[in-house]
Amino acid sequence: MSQFFSPDILIDQIVNGLTIGGIYALIALGYTLVYGILFMINFAHGEIYMFGSFGGFAVLTYFVNSGFAANHPALSIASAFIVGMIVSSVLGAILERIAYRPLRDAPRLSPLISAIGASIFLQNVMMLIIKARMQIYPDVIEERFIELGPTSVSVFQIFIILSSLILMLGLYFFIKRTKTGKAMRAVAESKEAAALMGIDVDRIIVITFVIGSALAGAAGVMVGIYYTQINHMMGFIPGIKAFTAAVVGGIGNVVGAMFGGYFLGMAEALGVLVMPSEYKDVIAFSLLVLVLIFKPRGIFGEVISDRV
Amino acid sequence: MQALERFTNKIPIPSKVYLGLLVIFVAALPPMVGSYWTQILGDIGIYIMLGIGLNVVVGFAGLLDLGYVAFFAIGAYGYGLVASPQFGIHIPFWFMLPACVAFAALGGALLGIPVLRMRGDYLAIVTLGFGEIIRIVLNNLDPITNGPRGLLRIDPPLIGNFPVDSPTRWYYLILVGICFAAFIASRLNNSRLGRAWVAMREDQDAAEIMGINILKTKLLAFTIGASFAGMGGAIFAARQGSIFPENFSLMVSVNVLCLIIIGGMGSIPGVILGAVILIGLPEVLREVQLYRMLAFGGLLVAMMIFRPTGFIPSARRKMEFEK
User: What is the mean pLDDT of residues A255-276?
Assistant: First the structure.
C-alpha cells in the first residue's frame, strides 16, 4: 500500500488528472454551451471532437512527410491545432444546419435521436475513410521530461494543461466581455426576448455550435499528440465523460463545465490509485449517477430553467 | 379472446382471412426458406422481442432508455450462469425463464428508482452509462462471469425430452415468445396504465394534476420494459449456447432503438417491420454491410426530419404529430 501513496506517484496522478481534466473540460464546454441555448444534448459532440483530431492528424502527417515539420515543429503543431479547430467548427455548423435546426420545434425526443443518428453516421464516415484502422499521430517533437520534485513531468502534459487553460480563459472573456458573448447569454436566457432586442438568434446558435466545436477540435488534437493513437471510435467515451463533467458542474454553466472537467479528471486519476484501472470508466458513470441523485442541478447550479 | 381480437385489429390487414393466411405463412416459413434463413429469422425474432419491450419504455411512456442492453445482459447471464459448466449448475430453462424476467425487472426497478426523477435527456445518458457499466463489470468480474472468455456450452431448453437445438425449433419457440410479448404489450397499451403513460409522455405536469403518480408510472414502464429484455436475454443465451460480454455492447441498445423509430414508435407492427428492415436487410445486402451503419445513422436523422412517426406509426402517435 505504501507504494501506492508515495509522493511521486501522487504527483504523477495529479498531473495526469489536470491533463485529462483540461481535455474533458474543453469538450464539456461544447455540451454546456449548446445545452444552455437549445436544451438538447448534442450527442454527436464526441464525433466533432474525433473529426478535429483527424484534421490535426492529416496536417501533421502531411507536414512530416513533406519535411516541413522537421524545420518548423512549432509552426506545424500550431497549424494542426488551427486546422483541427476549423474542421470541427465547420462540422458543428453543418450538423446544426442539417440535423438540428429543422427539429427545433419538434418533440424533445426528436433532436436527441437525430443527434444519435448523426453520431453513428459520422463514426462510420471516418471508419470508411481510415478503413477502421488505428492511426498513429506522427512525432513532431520528441517528448521531453521536466524534473518536478521526486518525479518528472512530460512537456506534452504541461503544454496541454497550459493551452487548455488559455482556451478556457479566452472563452470566458469572450462570453463575458464581447458583444457576441453578451448576445449568447441573452439567447440562452430567452430566445424570444433576445429576438425582440434585435439579436439574430439563428446566427448566435450557429456561433455557439462553432465555438463549442472548435474547443472540442482543439481537445482532439491534444489527445492525438498526447496518446498518439486515434481511431473512429475515440469520441464515444470522452464524449460521455465530458457530458458527465458538464452535468457535474451544472449544465448550461460555463464555469461549472470547466470545474466539472477537472473534477472528473482528478477523480479518475486519483481513483486509479485505490481501485483497479479497468474500472476507471465506471468512476465517471457512477459519479454522474450520484451527482444527478443528490445534486441534480450540479455543483455550481445549472443556468437554464427547469421547464424545457 | 376479446383482448386477442383487439390486438389482431391493430395489424393493418383488415380482413381476418388475410390474417389467417399471414399466420399460416409465418408458421410455414422455416421449411420454405431453409435453415440458414431460419437462423436469421430467429435473430430478427429476438430483436422483435427486445423492440417490443423497449417500445413500452420509449414508445408508450416516452422515456429514452439508451442502456436497454443491460437488462438483456442480466437475462442472458442470469440463465447462462446457472445452466452451463461454469459452476456446474444446470437449472432447467423453463424454471429460469421467469426468474430471468424477474431479475431484469428487479434491475430495472433498482436503476429506475434513483434515475427516473431526472429530465428526459439526463435519463438517456445515465441509462447509457449503466449499460456500459454492466458490460465493463461482466468483462472484469472474471471469477464469476469468466470475463471476456464468456460462458460456454449453455444448456438448450427441453420440451418434454426434445432439446430445442435446431434453428427451426428455435424459430417456433421465439415465435411463441413474440406473440406472448406482443399480446402483453398491446394489452398494456390499452390499459389504464397505458393511458397514464401516454398522458405522462404528453405533459407530465398535466398528468400529475390529473392524479397520475408520475414516479410510480415511470417506474412501472421501466420495470416492465426491462422484463421483456430479461426474457429475450434468457432465450438469446440458450439459443447461442455461449455468451460473451461483447454481445452486450451499446450497439444492441442503439439497434433496438433504431428499429422502434424506423418502424414507428409505439406501434407493435412497426417494431416487427423495423426489426425485419434493420436486422434482415443487411443479410440480404451482404455486399453493402460496410455501409450499413452509415445508412442507419443517416436514416435516423432523415426519419426525424421527414417522417418522425416511422413507417407504421401507432394511431395515437400519428394524431399527435398531425395536430
Answer: 89
Confidence band of B321 (pLDDT split at 50, 70, 90): low
Q: Which of B252, B305, B319 to mutate to test the interface with A (most CBs of A within 10 A)?
A: B305
Tell me if B129 and A111 make a contact (CB, 8 A cut-off).
Answer: no
Between the CA atoms of A138, A140, A142 and A148, what dihedral angle is there, to the nearest 10 degrees? -100
Task: With beta carbons under 8 A apart, name residues in chain B contacting A113.
Answer: 257, 261, 300, 303-304
- Upper half-sphere CA count for residue B34 (Cβ side, 13 Å): 2
Whole-angstrom distance, CA of residue B62 vs CA of residue B165: 38
Give the residue from B91, B43, B97 showing the smallest Cα distance to B228: B97
Q: Which residues of B touch A121 (CB under 8 A)?
A: 294, 296-298, 300-301
Average pLDDT, chain A: 88
CA B45, CA A148: separation in Å to the nearest integer?
60
Cα–Cα distance between B178 and B183 in angstroms, integer? 8
Residue A106: list chain B partners with CB under 8 A.
304, 308
CATH number at residue B12: 1.10.3470
How sure is the predictor about A284, in pLDDT bands with cuts at 50, 70 and 90? confident
Q: What is the pTM of this model?
A: 0.84
In one-letter notation, the amino acid at residue B168 is: T
Vertex A28 angle, CA A24 and A30, to 5°: 130
Q: What is the DSSP letter of A147?
A: E
Please check the confidence at residue B323 and state whether its pLDDT lies above 80. Answer: no
Close Cβ partners of B268 (under 8 Å, ≥ 6 residues apart): B10, B52, B55, B182, B185, B186
Q: Is the pLDDT of residue A307 over 50?
A: no
CATH code for the part of the protein at A7-138+155-294: 1.10.3470
Could you give the C-alpha distances from B160 to B94, B145, B163, B231, in angstroms and in order?
A: 11, 30, 8, 21
Contact B308 A128 (CB under 8 A): no
Domain count, chain B: 1
Burial class for B129, CB neighbours closer than 10 Å (0-12, 13-18, 19+): buried
Q: Judging by DSSP bridges, how do beta strands A145-148 and A151-154 pair with one another?
A: antiparallel
Q: A261, A24 in Cβ contact below 8 A?
A: yes
Closest CA to A50 of A12, A72, A23, A16: A23
Distance CA A214, CA A26 (A): 9
Judged by average pLDDT, the poorest of A294-303, B41-50, B295-304 is A294-303
The answer, yes or no, to whether residue A305 has pLDDT greater than 80, is no
Q: What confidence tier does A2 reach under pLDDT thresholds 50, 70, 90?
A: very low
Residue in B118, B294, B300 nearest the CB of A296: B118
Q: pLDDT band for position A308 (50/70/90)?
A: very low
- The C-alpha cell at A68 is 516541413
Sign of the torsion formed by the C-alpha atoms of B229, B232, B236 and B238: positive
Domain that holds residue B268: 2-322
B159 - beta bridge partners? B162
Does residue B284 surpass a pLDDT of 50?
A: yes
Residue for cell digits 442539417?
A98
- What ranges do the domains of chain A cover? 7-138+155-294
